[in-house]
């Protein structure tokens, strides 16, 4: 089995964190291919940057998805998730969607931890779009930026972990969260280190997405041929990469 991990941000260190988290949950024999965006935002921190990153995701999957069995979006806003599902015949899993779905199997109320105060409403909207708003205990945001998290020198890494732990504890103590989802690709691979110090499950979206992608490949479900996620019909597009042009040009 071959999984494509897509990070549309331009920060290679985030891709490295996603790959490390994916390796910890990949089954024996699963091959992981991680790719980083070539254009767009360094790190997504707004709706505008997320809109730009959607093109980046589509460009990356057009180039790298052929030959893969599934795609995992290593971007916590699940950027271009449904667009990818329209264009590809293989399973596509978003890390936050996967984390929420896994969380719903172990808890009645899920807390979501992310970076940046302005991002809180975006994640609430994302959770609502999955019809899981009633299961959301609360959203807590950290003052640390993703760049600070993945770029911290060795001596500062413990402080980063302590900040993440404090945010998770706030969700448990203030909001009654029974599980906490780390909604940030820069926080990928932190869950294992912090889990022993938290009284509820700590969910790493990348790990959940890899596990779900592997399960979907094994289920061998066909894609819908009718409805809103069916193939787009082969309409022509212009001004994008040859690989993306060809992907849009497929009629089935």
Classify the oligomer. Answer: single chain
Q: Beta fraction of the residues?
A: 15-25%
Tally of discrete structural domains: 2
- What is the CATH-assigned architecture of the largest domain? 3-Layer(aba) Sandwich
Q: Specify the biggest β-sheet.
A: 4 strands, parallel
End-to-end Cα distance = 23 Å
Residue stretches low in confidence (pLDDT < 50, at least 5 long) are none
Overall, the morphology is globular
SSE pattern: EHEHEHEHEHEHHEHEHH
The residue fraction in helices comes out at 40-55%
**Count of helical regions:** 10
Which CATH class of the largest domain? Alpha Beta
The total count of strands amounts to 8
Organism: Pseudorhodoferax aquiterrae
Pfam families: Asp_Glu_race
InterPro entries: Asp/Glu/hydantoin_racemase, Hydantoin_racemase-like, Iso_Racemase_Enz_sf
Protein name: Asp/Glu/hydantoin racemase
């Amino acid at each position: 089995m071959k999984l494509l991990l897509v990070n549309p941000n331009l920060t290679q260190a985030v891709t490295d964190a996603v790959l490390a988290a994916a390796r910890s949950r990949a089954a024996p024999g699963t091959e992981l291919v991680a790719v980083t965006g070539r254009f767009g935002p360094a790190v997504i921190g707004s709706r505008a940057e997320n809109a730009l990153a959607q093109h980046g995701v589509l460009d990356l999957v057009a180039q790298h998805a052929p030959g893969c069995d599934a795609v995992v979006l290593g971007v916590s806003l699940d950027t271009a998730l449904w667009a990818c599902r329209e264009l590809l015949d293989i399973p596509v899993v978003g890390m936050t969607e996967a984390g929420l779905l896994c969380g719903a199997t172990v808890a009645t109320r899920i807390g979501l931890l992310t970076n940046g105060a302005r991002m809180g409403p975006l994640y609430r909207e994302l959770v609502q779009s999955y019809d899981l708003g009633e299961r959301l205990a609360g959203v807590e945001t950290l003052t640390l930026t993703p760049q600070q998290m993945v770029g911290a020198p060795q001596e500062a890494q413990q402080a980063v972990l302590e900040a993440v732990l404090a945010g998770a504890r706030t969700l448990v103590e203030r909001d009654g969260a029974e599980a906490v989802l780390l909604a940030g690709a820069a926080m990928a691979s932190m869950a294992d280190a912090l889990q022993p110090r938290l009284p509820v499950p700590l969910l790493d979206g990348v790990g959940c997405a890899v596990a779900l992608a592997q399960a979907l490949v094994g289920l061998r479900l066909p894609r819908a041929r009718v409805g809103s996620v069916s193939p787009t019909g082969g309409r022509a597009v212009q001004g994008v990469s040859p690989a993306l042009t060809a992907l849009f040009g497929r009629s089935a």
